[in-house]
């Protein structure tokens, strides 16, 4: 934990029932492989998550945090020999506002870095970026990558509508393989394509996706208000995601 040598998943729960737990645990396993950690025991983590939820209040909306680290180690960067540690906690989650204002930060995501695409506990970059955004009135920070293309938010993926086309950056941009991103593409559609950062400013509409946001329309980018929030495409995406996620709790 002290050196950020770990991975985690955030899972949404509604009235005590987790959403897309299987997908989240599969991504946890991919992140573990990317860090060279032993493969987590899927069944143990799934059962542990259900037990934690059973012991907690049945909040209308809750956030589960599953953290898996390399375990105790010496001071410094070397790993210890005791093996991984796991923690699972849950707490209430306030709904996000109906729309988001976003701020583009001056630091790029490194799409060629060792941690690219992994959901790790090394979160200082995200914390700094989100603080930068909030100081400027934003509710989420948006990164470009080192190529200058649109990448992702600190805890979200991003979709833009250009000339009626719904587009999101590909995983090769360095963005996280978001569970809600994948479900939006499966349930509603869209294209994966490299986008210039300027495409965000000239978008007809745009939205964020994440576990706790679901599909959240973007109202403004760096203080510039987009033509609509939600626009017609975003409104349909919100409706489609809400309908399918209500039917399938572990899609």
TrEMBL record:
GO terms for biological process: amino acid biosynthetic process; carboxylic acid biosynthetic process. Pfam families: Aminotran_4. Signal peptide: none annotated. It comes from the Bacteria. Its cofactor is pyridoxal 5'-phosphate. InterPro entries: Aminotrans_IV (IPR001544), Aminotrans_IV_CS (IPR018300), Aminotransferase-like (IPR036038), BCAT-like_C (IPR043132), BCAT-like_N (IPR043131), Class-IV_PLP-Dep_Aminotrnsfr (IPR050571). GO terms for cellular component: cytosol. Keywords: Lyase, Pyridoxal phosphate. One of its GO terms (molecular function) is lyase activity. Belongs to the class-IV pyridoxal-phosphate-dependent aminotransferase family. This is 4-amino-4-deoxychorismate lyase.
């Amino acid at each position: 934990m002290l050196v950020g040598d770990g991975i985690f998943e955030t899972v949404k729960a509604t009235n005590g029932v987790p959403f897309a737990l299987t997908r989240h645990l599969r991504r946890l396993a991919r992140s573990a492989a990317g860090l060279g950690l032993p493969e987590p025991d899927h069944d143990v983590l799934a059962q542990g998550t259900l037990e934690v939820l059973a012991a907690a209040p049945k909040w209308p909306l809750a956030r589960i945090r599953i953290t898996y680290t390399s375990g105790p180690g010496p001071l410094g960067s070397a790993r210890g020999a005791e093996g991984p540690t796991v923690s699972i906690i849950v707490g209430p989650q306030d709904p996000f506002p109906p729309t988001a204002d976003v701020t583009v930060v001056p630091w790029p995501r490194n799409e060629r870095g060792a941690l690219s695409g992994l959901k790790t506990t090394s979160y200082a970059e995200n914390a700094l970026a989100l603080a930068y955004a909030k100081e400027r009135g934003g509710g989420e920070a948006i990164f470009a990558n080192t190529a200058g293309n649109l990448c992702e938010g600190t805890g979200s993926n991003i979709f833009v509508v250009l000339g009626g086309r719904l587009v999101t950056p590909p995983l090769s941009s360095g963005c996280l393989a978001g569970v809600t991103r994948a479900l939006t593409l499966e349930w509603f559609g869209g294209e994966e394509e490299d986008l210039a950062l300027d495409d965000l400013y000239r978008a007809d509409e745009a939205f964020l996706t994440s576990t706790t946001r679901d599909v959240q329309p973007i109202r403004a980018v760096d203080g510039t208000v987009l033509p609509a929030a939600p626009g017609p495409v975003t409104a349909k995406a919100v409706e489609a995601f809400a309908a399918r996620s209500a039917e399938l709790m572990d899609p």
